[in-house]
Design brief:
The protein is built from five helices and twelve strands. By secondary structure, the chain is an alpha+beta fold. It has one domain. The protein has a seven-stranded antiparallel sheet with strand order 2-3-10-9-8-7-11. A three-stranded antiparallel sheet has the order 1-12-6. Strand 2 and strand 3 form a beta hairpin. Helix 2 packs across helix 4 and helix 3 crosses helix 4.
Length: 268
């Protein structure tokens, strides 16, 4: 037995040492590769789904992790958040879903076509603990897929887009443990919607929140495609559906929406 162990160490000892050093330095053994998805999404490519974009941003260590509510110091992860929002709508992550609904005056709309919220139970439960208001989640008897209140849905997107990244923190909304809309002002946010990017957050003072998806011109009107919860199908009552719809810039301004790039964090 001793002889076999000696042969094994001679053959693999240096590799094991390198692996231990790599794990201690980088937190994973896939050196030189981008992390494309958290463990819950690792099967996406094999299932024919669109793979999550790689984390091109490198961690800048040094943020204060001892208390909740500090700045996100790991680069602008807007593209990853935009992907997560599309993934919430459909596993195809292409900006549409298998459940189109009647268009409104601004253009076509879609509802979520799968149970995104329950597909990662750990993230769901952690986001529920953090949220002040959650709302109905998961599947309904008529086959709809619910994302809860719009604020919870945005927080869940931010959580799932970043909690697995190895930084020990995840993105959230400003004032996550209190005033969700406390930063709706010209210092931290903008109403110059043409300056925004996919993956930025929008929030109105009338208490709606969503994720900017794509800048576009629809029927001659410039605006944003938005992915959110509790808007599509809920114009006359609260339905809590995950959906995608279009808002012209003029409507965003009229409804008092502000937008900002994701930059606020709390501990995992």
């Amino acid at each position: 037995m001793l002889q076999k162990c000696t042969k094994f160490l001679k053959k693999y000892g240096s590799l094991l040492a390198i692996t231990v050093i790599a794990v201690s330095l980088f937190g994973c053994i896939e050196i030189g590769k981008h992390t494309t998805a958290p463990p819950t999404h690792q099967t996406a490519a094999s299932a024919g789904e669109v793979e999550k974009p790689g984390a091109a941003q490198v961690a800048v260590v040094g943020s204060d992790r001892t208390k909740p509510g500090f700045g996100w110091n790991y680069g602008d992860w807007s593209s990853r958040i935009a992907w997560e929002a599309r993934y919430a709508l459909s596993r195809s992550a292409n900006g549409s879903s298998a459940w189109p609904v009647n268009p409104d005056k601004y253009g076509p709309r879609w509802l979520g076509d799968w149970n995104y919220v329950d597909s990662d139970g750990y993230a769901r439960d952690q986001a529920i603990e953090e949220a002040t208001d959650v709302g109905p989640l998961g599947d309904t008897s008529d086959g709809h897929h619910l994302g809860g209140w719009c604020t919870f849905f945005v927080r869940l997107i931010l959580y799932r887009a970043t909690y697995w990244s190895g930084h020990g923190v995840h993105m959230t909304t400003p004032g996550f443990n209190g005033g969700v809309y406390s930063w709706c002002d010209g210092v931290h946010m903008t109403q110059n919607y043409w300056q925004a990017q996919p993956g930025w957050i929008i929030a109105s003072k009338d208490y709606h929140m969503g994720i900017l998806d794509t800048r576009a011109t629809v029927n001659g009107v410039v605006g944003w495609w938005i992915i959110d919860a509790n808007w599509v199908g809920s114009e006359s009552s609260y339905h809590y559906y995950i959906g995608r719809h279009f808002f012209p810039d003029t409507t965003l301004k009229t409804l008092g929406f502000w937008t900002w790039y994701p930059s606020w964090a709390t501990t995992n």
